[in-house]
Design a protein that fits this description.
Structural class: mainly alpha
Distance between the termini: 62 Å
Largest sheet: none
Number of strands: 0
Helix content: over 70%
Mean pLDDT: 81
Strand content: under 5%
Low-confidence stretches: 1-6
Order of helices and strands: HHH
Radius of gyration: 20 Å
Length: about 110
């Protein structure tokens, strides 16, 4: 039986903690940017003239709540990038925050139609 080396492409060496962190940060930055774009798209659906009705004001409150959560997630991400302590715990907390943002967005999207 022939032994295959990593150079032959059969086995990949494990990623270093630094590489895992870089990949996570790059991915998370893209996710946060996408959520910002989605929130902006949702905002564009609200016609400015219609925002004066009570229903549209409720929609605007949902939208403002989403913006705040998105900004909070971005702040958590910036703190995570600067931190070396408890990185795993902080990244898991940020993942949960982003998941909550996703669920809140879906609720708002169903309301703002």
């Amino acid at each position: 039986m022939k032994n295959l080396s990593a150079a032959e492409g059969s086995v990949k060496p494990p990623l270093s903690p630094e590489e895992v962190r870089k990949r996570y940060e790059s991915f998370t930055e893209q996710v946060l940017e996408q959520w910002g774009s989605k929130i902006n798209d949702l905002d564009s659906r609200l016609v400015r003239e219609r925002r004066e009705t009570e229903a549209e004001m409720v929609n605007l409150e949902y939208l403002n709540s989403l913006r705040t959560k998105s900004q909070d997630a971005t702040l958590l991400f910036e703190e995570l990038k600067k931190s070396s302590k408890d990185w795993d715990t902080k990244s898991k907390n940020l993942d949960k925050w982003i998941e909550e943002l996703k669920l809140d967005f879906e609720r708002a999207q169903n309301i703002i139609r």
